[in-house]
Amino acid sequence: MNQKTDSFPEGSDFYSALKKRYRVASIWQILFLSALFVAMISLTALLYNVMDGAFGYIAYEYKNDPSEFTFTPVNELSKEELLTILQNNLSAGAYKKLDAEQAMPTRSQADLMNLFLERLLQIDTKQTWSMTESILQGNEIRQEAKTNYPEARIEFRSWLTPQFLVSSLSSRAEFAGVRTAVLGSLWLVGIAIAFALPIGTGAAIYLQEYAPKNWFTAIIQTNLNNLAGVPSIVYGMLGLAVFVRLLEPFTSGGIFGLTDANGRTVLSAGLTMGILVLPLIIINAQEAIKAVPDSLRQASFGVGATRWQTVWYHVLPNALPGILTGSILALSRALGETAPLIVVGASTFISVDPDGPFSKFTALPIQIYQWTTRAQSEFHAVAASGIIVLLVLLLTLNASAILLRNRFQRKL
Amino acid sequence: MTRKTFENEIQQVKDDVLLLGSLVEHAIIGSVEALKKRDLKAAEKIIAEDVAINKKRFEIENQLMILIATQQPMAHDLRLLASTMEIISELERMGDYAKGIANINIRMGEDTLLKPLIDIPRMAQKGADMLHRALTAFVNEDVELANSIPAEDDEVDALYNQIYRELMVFIIEDPKNIERANWLLWVSHNLERVADRVTNICERTIFIATGEMREIKDSDDEFWHAQKK
Amino acid sequence: MENNNNHYSIETKDLSIHYGRFTAVRNVNLKVEKQKITAIIGPSGCGKSTLLRAFNRMNDFVSGSSVTGEIFLHGRNLYSKHVDPVEVRRKIGMVFQKPNPFPKSIYENIAWGARINGFKGKVDELVENSLRSAALWDEVKDKLQESAYALSGGQQQRLCIARAIAVQPEIILMDEPASALDPISTLRVEELLQELKKNYTILIVTHNMQQAARASDFTAMMMIDDQRAGGVIEFDDTKKIFTRPTDKRTEDYVTGRFG
């Protein structure tokens, strides 16, 4: 009698082996799932950690009591009231100086409020708490603040404000912003890509389309692959030696008639970054060019096109999306690198925006690093906000590069 | 060998052709034997058996069509299949000649033979023998053998001439013999045609083996040529 | 056309093709007749495509490849130092195994080749004439600006043929032009060949023996020798090759008994 009616007569050996095979398969599946889980946890932890620092309770005191200036509660002051208060209470010289930087009536309410807090009330942060603490132990924090700083006001503060984005650096965490650093980073990335993309693409075209396949090109190829893995600090040293020192007349703008700068400019840093991402761009462009089907080249040659016409009209347009993908990676790398910038000599404290390739500059990662080294806890909150800005900037640049790439892809 | 299935099918066709050939041989000998003995029952049996010959021919033809359609024969294979188509049609016609002899036998009814049959059975024997060897040459694609057979047609033609003259003498002697002489003349003519068609089979066999398409021997012309003299 | 007393279009003399030290094709002597279709058949790896590509110097792109012997077109050796391969490829067009239109519009696919070769006439006319010659005009005349990739495989291959015609070659090489197409498209391409041979000399490599038998006037049978070099073992009228070939190996190949 065959008691197993729902199976083929394969014999029990087959079925027991089959069971074992399924068991092994499901073990592997679970392993893969847990790997994904670990990765997700890590990413979530990263994001949480950043957010945790950027928001939270803050206890602060005013050196001068608001009632000395106005009877309206500080939070409800209008632009006009603030303007009047500042006009009446700042020294004439100080007001003039501020007015010269930017005409006072044209400033925003938030800006005026900052000036009021900074110059007149002279806000003094006593203690900050993380977001988690603030949410879970709000009452305890209030109690603690009351006892430790009887004078202090306590409120929930977001360190990431529009004001944070548009303000330049400040020695006081409450008024510090990332504008200078963001602009510096954009200049840096812009110069790096402008330098590395054409050169990298050109080199890749030569290697893929023209260079003979021999031991010499093989050595170059191996070196390129290795260069992509060289620690970034090494590129920093190179940048220091070549761009900052050797080419100082050029990178400082000296030969263009600028006299007040040295070689530690955004141009030097941008070129250093360009060299840093060059292998990355070349390798990616090579891959993109390799991916262009040979049939297309043959079709082009078949109608009597020259090598150059084939490359220009067919290979390059078809490789462009891939090349742009490479530049996205390069861009992210350039935006996040810190070490070479320190070596090349990014300024750690600078409040003047970069306005050209020969400007002194700072960059977001440098700024964040600098804030995190400060002892005061409020600066750590500022650093966390800076990181959020860096991440958003990275995402925005990547997104626009991807959009650009997709546009090229659709055309084909 | 990459075409084992096809090879097997070709072999099957060749076997069937041999079978058809042996049916035809049997019919030719049998029809003359029946005439010799004036055995009308045997003659009727020959006529009935011709249906089997025709059936076998259509069967092989159908098989050939299928092979041509499905196997896309080229070169030698194509020559073989196309020529086999021709050969089975020749065989079927030979079967018809045997049937014709059997018909004459029946139509003679109560008439006795004009003379005892001696040369006519010899013609039949010779024709059947040639056919047998021609088919052997076909199956083995033996060019030498195929080339040698048509020459033997001369013997058949000579017998035919001899019978013709003999019958003419009977007619001249007594015009009442005309009808009975005519029966036998038809019979011998049928047998002469059998040998001619054997020649066609040999020509096809040579074409299959060599790709050369040529007439080995125009037997009809020779006969009429001989008459003129 | 210009030289009526010579009815050969292109001739090879002791043509051998080497990859490094390996000889892929040895001592080919072919006389290709003008305005006829010549098929090259043979088992895989016998060097059919290599031989075909030698005619328009496509092998130049394979590193390590070299050619000995000569190929004559109008009495000029295509492999002489004074002949520019770009010029050769304009005179001898090519259609490839897989349809490979440019990722551009149908119009551009045809106009581009003419334009880069310095075509001075009316491009619109050229596009129309080329598409008509390739029996594609009626199907695409209303969508010339659409992507060539929107066409079916068979249409793409005919577009590639139109593209080859547009640069006004004398000879068109076809490397298994129908192997990626369905049977109907294949037959359509074969019909097209019969039209094209009125104006062009066509050389076609095919592994489809029926196609060679149906579509070609002459057939060259290739086979590798004991040193794995391919060579033409029989070259004759197509009718003869497929009904009564001379060489036993050709017989074995066309009857499917090779290997």
Secondary structure topology:
The complex is a heterotrimer of chains A (412), B (229) and C (259).
Chain A: H1 12-54, E1 55-62, H2 79-89, H3 92-101, H4 109-121, E2 123-128, H5 131-136, H6 138-148, E3 153-158, H7 162-166, H8 179-210, H9 215-227, H10 232-246, H11 248-251, H12 266-291, H13 294-302, H14 307-336, H15 339-344, H16 364-372, H17 377-411
Antiparallel strand pairs in A: 1-2, 1-3
Helix pairs in contact in A: 1-17, 2-4, 8-12, 8-14, 8-16, 10-12, 12-14, 13-14, 14-17, 16-17
Chain B: H1 4-36, H2 40-71, H3 75-108, H4 119-140, H5 143-148, H6 153-173, H7 178-210, H8 219-228
Helix pairs in contact in B: 1-2, 1-3, 1-4, 2-3, 3-7, 4-6, 4-7, 6-7, 6-8
Chain C: E1 8-19, E2 22-28, E3 31-33, E4 37-41, H1 48-55, E5 65-73, E6 76-77, H2 85-91, E7 92-95, H3 106-116, H4 123-133, H5 137-140, H6 153-166, E8 171-175, H7 183-196, E9 201-205, H8 209-215, E10 218-224, E11 230-237, H9 238-243, H10 248-254
Parallel strand pairs in C: 4-9, 4-10, 7-8, 8-9
Antiparallel strand pairs in C: 1-2, 1-3, 1-5, 5-6, 10-11
Could you describe the largest sheet of chain A, including whether it forms a barrel? 3 strands, antiparallel
- Span between N and C termini of chain B? 56 Å
CATH first level of chain B: which class?
A: Mainly Alpha
The CATH H-level homologous superfamily of the largest domain in chain A: MetI-like
How many domains, in number, for the residues of chain B? 1
Order of helices and strands of chain B: HHHHHHHH
User: Looking at the structure, what is the overall shape of chain B?
Assistant: elongated
Helix content of chain B: over 70%
Entry keywords:
heterotrimer, A: 412 residues, mainly alpha, MetI-like fold, 2 domains, 3-stranded antiparallel sheet, flat, B: 229 residues, Methane Monooxygenase Hydroxylase, Chain G, domain 1, 8 helices, 0% strand
Short description:
The complex is a heterotrimer of chains A (412), B (229) and C (259). Chain A is built from 17 helices and three strands. Chain A is mainly alpha-helical.
Descriptive notes:
The complex is a heterotrimer of chains A (412), B (229) and C (259). Chain A is mainly α and 412 residues long. Chain A has helices spanning 12-54, 79-89, 92-101, 109-121, 131-136, 138-148, 162-166, 179-210, 215-227, 232-246, 248-251, 266-291, 294-302, 307-336, 339-344, 364-372, 377-411; strands at 55-62, 123-128, 153-158. Chain A has a 3-stranded antiparallel beta sheet with strand order 2-1-3, sandwiched between helices. In chain A, helix 1 packs across helix 17 (377-411), helix 2 (79-89) packs parallel to helix 4 and helix 16 (364-372) runs antiparallel to helix 17 (377-411). The N and C termini of chain A lie far apart (66 Å). With 229 residues, chain B is mostly helical. Chain B has helices spanning 4-36, 40-71, 75-108, 119-140, 143-148, 153-173, 178-210, 219-228. Chain C is α/β, with parallel strands linked by helices. Chain C has a domain at 8-100 and 171-254: P-loop containing nucleotide triphosphate hydrolases (Rossmann fold, 3-Layer(aba) Sandwich), CATH 3.40.50. In chain C, helix 3 (106-116) packs across helix 4, helix 4 (123-133) crosses helix 6 (153-166) and helix 6 (153-166) packs parallel to helix 7. The longest helix of chain C has 14 residues, at 153-166. The mean pLDDT of chain C is 91. Chains in contact: A-C, B-C.
